[in-house]
Design goal:
about 70 residues, mainly alpha
Length: about 70
């Protein structure tokens, strides 16, 4: 069984992970998604559906972030 301090630490880590994921997801959906997936151009209705997956997988999103266009 977890102690109260260990539970607080775990919840803090999960909250930080979620906050970081939300920031990355919103930044990704604001623009770079169109460079990563050309089919996403103009399809704004499906973007909220991607939020849960982007929040959970944000380290992979950052790793695969498309480079800026030149």
């Amino acid at each position: 069984m977890l102690s109260a301090e260990a539970a607080r630490l775990l919840l803090g880590l999960l909250a930080g992970y979620g906050a970081g994921g939300l920031a990355v997801a919103l930044a990704f959906l604001a623009g770079p998604i169109e460079r990563a997936t050309p089919a996403a151009r103009g399809a704004h209705a499906f973007r909220p559906l991607l939020l849960p997956g982007l929040i959970l997988l944000w380290p992979l999103v950052l790793w695969r972030w498309p480079p800026p266009e030149r």
